[in-house]
Each structure stands twice: as C-alpha cells, then as structure tokens.
Amino acid sequence: METETTDTVVLPATGADVLADRLAAALGAERGALEVRRFPDDETYVRVDTPLAGREVIVAAALRSPDPALVPLALLATTARDLGARRVGVVAPYLPYMRQDARFRPGEGVTSRYVARWLSGLIDWLVTVDPHLHRHRHLADVYEIPATALSAAPAIAAWLRAHVPAPVLVGPDAESAVATLAGAPCIVLDKRRHGDRAVDVSVPDVERWRTHTPVLVDDIISTARTMSETVGHLRRAGMPAAICIGVHAVFADDAEGALARAGAAAVVTCDTIAHATNAIPTLDLLVDGVRRHLRRPPAPA
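Above: the chain sequence. Below: its structure as tokens.
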C-alpha cells in the first residue's frame, strides 16, 4: 500500500484501538501512545506520550454509544491541538446524532446541528461512512469543516457478487445504489414511519422474483422493526428467506432476535461498528477518505 510520512500520528479515542491500529498500518503512520481513563469522580483524564507538535493527527473514534464517547473524543482532540498538532482530523465510521435533523414537535432540540457545531469547533476534518442523511442532503449542511461521507455501497455490492448467486434487492433506501453496482434487480417498498419504533411496510408483487434470494439493505440496523416486518411479508408472499445487510450494526433492543424470528436467512453488516455480524470490511474505503484530507494543505492560521 502507498504510505504517508511519519509526519502523521493516529490516536485511538475510547474503544477505537483496533481501528487506530489498522489505519496506522495502512497509512504508514505512527500509532500514537496515550492514556485515557476515568478519575474516581468520572471525569476523563487524557495524556498523549507521542510528540504531536507540527504533525497531522488522526483520531480514530468508535461512537456506537455516543454520549459516553463524545466527551473523551472532544478532550483528546483538544489536547492534540493544544500540544501543537498541525491539524486534527477524526475518522468515525459510524457518525451519531444525525437522526434529529428537524424540530418535529414544539420545544425539541435539533441535536444533529448542535453536535455538528460543537465538533466543528474542535477538529479540522471528518471522515465517516453512510451517515444518516435524511433531511440534510450533505454533511456540509450541518458540519462547518471539510467532512467526507463515504458510501459502503461498492463494498456491499462486491460482497453480494461473491456470496449470493441470484439476489433481488429489496428496500426503500440504500438498495438502489447497491443493486446497480451488483447488477441485480431491485424491488422498492413503501415505508411509513410512525415514531421511533413503529414502521409500516408494504411489499409489491414479487411473483416474478420467486427464484431469486431477497436481500434487504439499510444504512442502520437499529431496532430492525422495518427489516423484520419486510422479511415476514416476503416469506408470506412465498419468497425464499431473506438476507439482511446493514452498514451500521447498532442492534438496539432485541433486533437480532426479531430478525431471526421473522425468518431471515442471514444478517450481515459492515465493520463500521464492531459486531459478530461484521463481514464487509471498510478499511480501504476509510483510508481513501483520509488520504483526501491529508493531501489538502492546512487552512491559513
């Protein structure tokens, strides 16, 4: 692999040691040494043992549980800047706080904007994979720094070509790009959300696809209510058991159990969140995104 200079240091935020190791190895960068721990009163202690002055710093972040992870991330990024880092970027394969992108009821906070504004004041650039962009079309709509949203669709399509002989993609969102890249047909659903956990799904006529394996693709598998309902509809329509693919393995509540009870043949995810279902790697994708930012000259002071 092409390497960068040791001018670049990769630091892991809480829970991101494996990601930091992989990024450092792939980039030819130095894997920084640091200590992040809790004081007895639950405040966060940060110490970086690797010299950072004048260097590019990449902070690897695992943000599946965002609230306990964001404060240590913010303190680590700020410490790196205070120690003289030339620029501080964050690689967060899963980017939280994108759901609440509007004020749906009086008095609600638009937290996607608040968190984006907060992080934009602490770091110089951001790389993530398939953020939940719904009402925001681009990360630039909320983040005030250069922010790259990478697509896992090519990696998912490559996995499908290698593992599923006759797929038909099913879903309302991410499946169309994957279907095009995989050269597979696509069935579009009508999905209507009635709150955080209530979703209605209608499945069109599937008679012509009975010899195909249905593949459900979504950016986030959270409660899996939508997927579970769709799997059940497809089974009742006489289709083979579906394969469920998610970019981000959030798996809240009993999501895996719900998919199993609905009759899913398999559940597969990208490795943006560490989980037993991870089968689709995203490291090459992330490295490409990071290199785009490393090639950019620093902004004038």
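The radius of gyration is 21 Å.
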